[in-house]
């Protein structure tokens, strides 16, 4: 009888603990609003003390509407960089003032607050994809690309032919731009991210937690587990992932600071204003 009473008390305590944890989780979810996350891929080279951002993606999470808008910002976008108080290519912001300078530049460009960031050497995406045991992708173009050791034409892809890619394949697919453009590459990077999100989402909670740990190991981020908890409910429901690349005009333009023509991209003002409105929702 005494043993049964002890078991009963332990069970009650356990149930109360579960209820408490669940209550905290629900409160955290209900108090989490929209979120702006800046994903920065850097082209860090061995021996260099500074690096430019090779890719910039802004993820806007609209929690109420279960929508994630993934926006790629071309690295040659000619914008105002607060750190140097003049216009320059947006990827130079990282070389001038690191992740803080990049965040400040994007905040000014879109008139928003960046809530969280993830900064990663894009080559380390190999281990992330491999952690997921690969991802399924259907290439949107036919081309060959060098491998992670710069060996030419190591990986080839055929438009419309679905394949299961490991980390090295996915990196080669995401980094290619020679046969088309930086805009097409931005689209491929988004395809890879979307495939990774889909794989993580369908893998279950343990895999999600492991993936989070892997991300924090290979990247510089201010995302904490408590932060992610507030958006965990989206992982268990259907949500839309919209992909887009900044619109504008690119070409050779005279760049005053450099004193010569440079390849620059001018973001379309109409697109920029519409995007600002969307980000305020």
UniProtKB/TrEMBL annotation:
Pfam families associated with the record: LytR_cpsA_psr
Tell me the first and last residues of the signal peptide.
Answer: none
The record's comment on protein family reads: Belongs to the LytR/CpsA/Psr (LCP) family.
Q: Which residues form the Cell envelope-related transcriptional attenuator domain?
A: 52-201
Q: Where are the transmembrane segments?
A: none
Q: Per its record, how is this protein called by name?
A: LytR family transcriptional attenuator
Report which superkingdom the organism of origin falls in: Bacteria
Extract the InterPro entries matched here: LytR/CpsA/Psr_CW_biosynth, LytR_CpsA_psr
């Amino acid at each position: 009888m005494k043993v049964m009473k002890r078991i009963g008390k332990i069970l009650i305590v356990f149930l109360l603990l579960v209820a408490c944890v669940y209550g905290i989780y629900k409160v955290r979810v209900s108090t989490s609003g929209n979120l702006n996350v800046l994903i920065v891929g850097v082209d860090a080279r061995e021996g260099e003390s500074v690096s430019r951002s090779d890719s910039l993606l802004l993820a806007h999470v609209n929690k109420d509407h279960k929508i994630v808008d993934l926006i790629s910002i071309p690295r040659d976008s000619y914008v105002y960089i607060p750190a140097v108080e003049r216009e320059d290519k947006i990827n130079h912001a990282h070389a001038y003032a690191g992740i803080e300078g990049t965040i400040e530049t994007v905040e000014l460009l879109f008139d928003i607050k960046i809530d969280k960031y993830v900064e990663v050497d894009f080559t380390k995406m190999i281990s992330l994809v491999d952690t997921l045991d690969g991802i399924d992708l259907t290439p949107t173009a036919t081309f060959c690309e060098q491998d992670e050791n710069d060996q030419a034409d190591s990986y080839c892809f055929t438009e419309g032919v679905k394949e299961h890619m490991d980390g090295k394949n996915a990196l080669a697919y995401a980094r290619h731009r020679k046969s088309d453009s930086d805009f097409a590459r931005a689209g491929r990077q988004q395809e890879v991210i979307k495939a990774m999100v889909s794989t993580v989402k369908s893998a279950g909670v343990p895999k999600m937690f492991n993936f989070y740990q892997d991300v924090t190991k290979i990247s510089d981020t201010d995302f904490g587990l408590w932060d992610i908890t507030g958006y965990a409910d989206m992982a268990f429901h259907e949500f839309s992932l919209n992909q887009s690349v900044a619109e504008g005009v690119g070409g050779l333009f005279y760049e005053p600071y450099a004193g010569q023509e440079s390849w620059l991209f001018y973001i379309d003002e109409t697109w920029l204003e519409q995007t600002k409105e969307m980000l305020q929702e």
